[in-house]
Amino acid sequence: MKVAIYVRVSTDEQAKEGFSIPAQRERLRAFCASQGWEIVQEYIEEGWSAKDLDRPQMQRLLKDIKKGNIDIVLVYRLDRLTRSVLDLYLLLQTFEKYNVAFRSATEVYDTSTAMGRLFITLVAALAQWERENLAERVKFGIEQMIDEGKKPGGHSPYGYKFDKDFNCTIIEEEADVVRMIYRMYCDGYGYRSIADRLNELMVKPRIAKEWNHNSVRDILTNDIYIGTYRWGDKVVPNNHPPIISETLFKKAQKEKEKRGVDRKRVGKFLFTGLLQCGNCGGHKMQGHFDKREQKTYYRCTKCHRITNEKNILEPLLDEIQLLITSKEYFMSKFSDRYDQQEVVDVSALTKELEKIKRQKEKWYDLYMDDRNPIPKEELFAKINELNKKEEEIYSKLSEVEEDKEPVEEKYNRLSKMIDFKQQFEQANDFTKKELLFSIFEKIVIYREKGKLKKITLDYTLK
Ligand SMILES: [Zn+2]
User: For residue 462, what is the DSSP state?
Assistant: First the structure.
């Protein structure tokens, strides 16, 4: 057995006992003697940290491995070789390629055994994970902060339980509520009507007596539910198991943005933000309440035509009932309107994703190139850049999924509201508004001059 021993101390470690070059070397020599191995080469790296593989003796070792001069690489401890899982993975791959086993004198990593190969599999999985989260995770590991004696405090967020060692468990009943909140929100319900619904179902929040606008909003905006942990200004993605998918989370944020921008739901009138005047080309109509007559009406902001709420609501409710109960009617109105949407080339985007993946692999290879390795900083920069591109494509793809809801699906969604009319009549004002907003994107009304009740409705579904 031709054995190479690799010894390393960093500048900080030189002062520490037991880590000195002579101490490590002696231990390794004794180990080889006990196994009956011959040391063919010693690689002594003095004053180098393990932050990357760009060290003179490491590079010499890799060269000799490729020449086939070595059967086993022996180190005092794994972290002498590297402290990065990714580097370790790349090293182990090289070792395997040239039939070199790897041993640690103080630990049980023996890659010539089945157990050792399992270890490599684990390292590979970890390295994959490290790749995906490279820049951020390496910089701000929660574990590292805990090692430094700084522990995040406070309550566990709804849906989770973090114990004192910061291990995380999902509380399934609560997680179901979180999922329900996200789905309802994306289906068009607002904070308040979600809270109402939860209270009706007797679902209790953790501390407060009841759900309200704020507690629902807090859940909908907290990325802890996709596994991100925030602590002060530190952000750690993939810190714990997610409760909802990233796609659903993004969808909810987009929805929130959309609702925030047009502030549709702020007005107290049922149709404010939804209603447009068709007589003058789609101008907003504003709600007013006539105290003397105890009537709500809407006035066009341009042509000032006035229409009573009752005169809109009655035909609208009938229309909704018809849309829900008759698929034929629904299809006759919409089958041509929603199927003519622009087709986005999904396969081109998918191909682009594959290309980015290959580019990433190429950069990792360049980083491992023993003749002319690129520095780690450059690798990080390139990978980050590619990650950004990847992110853009993913968001394009998720938009496609959202926008291309086929007309059939639209109908299925609507047809589930079979008891709409009854629900609407029993609901409070807020919920009424939410119900309308969950169905319509906008409603345009046309009215002939002088004929108060003769109203034609035109509308766009959500
Ligand atoms: Zn008008």
Answer: -
Contact yes or no for 81/91 (Cβ under 8 A): yes
Helix (H/G/I), strand (E/B), else coil: 318:
helix
SS3 of residue 248 by DSSP: helix
The contacts found for 432-436 with CB under 8 angstroms, 24 or more apart, are 432/270, 433/190, 433/265, 433/270, 434/188, 434/189, 434/190, 434/192, 434/193, 434/265, 435/193, 436/270, 436/271, 436/274
Residue 137 has pLDDT above 50, yes or no: no
Distance (Å, whole) CA 240 – CA 162 = 10
Other Cβ atoms closer than 10 A to 260: 11
- pLDDT for res 152: 59
CA of 158: how far to CAs of 81, 205, 340, in Å?
A: 42, 8, 43
**Cα of 324 from ligand 1 centre, angstroms:** 29
DSSP for 271-310, please give it: TTTTEEETTTTSEEEEEEEETTTTEEEEEETTT--EEEHH
pLDDT digits (tens, 9 = 90+) for 221-280: 999 999 888 776 667 777 788 999 888 899 899 888 877 654 544 557 889 888 999 988
DSSP state of 400: H
Do residues 39 and 52 make contact, with C-beta atoms less than 8 angstroms apart?
Answer: no
Phi–psi pair at 85, nearest 5 degrees: -60, -40
Using 50, 70 and 90 to split pLDDT, how confident is the model at 28? very high
**Residue 401 — very low, low, confident or very high, per pLDDT cuts 50/70/90?**
low
Give me ligand 1 centre to Cα 334, in Å.
Answer: 26
The C-alpha atoms of residue 145 and residue 431 are separated, in whole angstroms, by: 45
Q: Is the separation of the CB atoms in 330 and 411 below 8 Å?
A: yes
> Distance of alpha carbon 71 from its chain centroid, rounded?
44
Distance, CA 279 to ligand 1 centroid (Å)?
Answer: 5
Token pair 């709600």 in the structure block, residue:
287
The three-state secondary structure class of 369 is: coil
List the single range of 239-243, 268-272, 393-397, 403-407 with lowest mean pLDDT. Answer: 403-407
* Catalytic site residue from 10, 112, 335, 398: 10
Backbone φ and ψ for 446, nearest 5 degrees, come out as -115, 140
How much distance in Å is there from the Cα of 298 to the middle of ligand 1? 10
Query: Would you state the structure tokens that stand for residue 86, as one six-digit string?
Result: 């990714």
Q: How far is CA 291 from the centre of its chain?
A: 50
Q: Would you place residue 135 in the very low, low, confident or very high pLDDT band (cuts 50, 70, 90)?
A: very low
Question: With 60 as the cut, is the pLDDT of residue 140 above it?
Answer: no
For residue 283, how far is its CA from the centre of ligand 1 (angstroms)? 6
Asked about 10 being catalytic, the answer comes back as yes
pLDDT at 3 over 90: yes
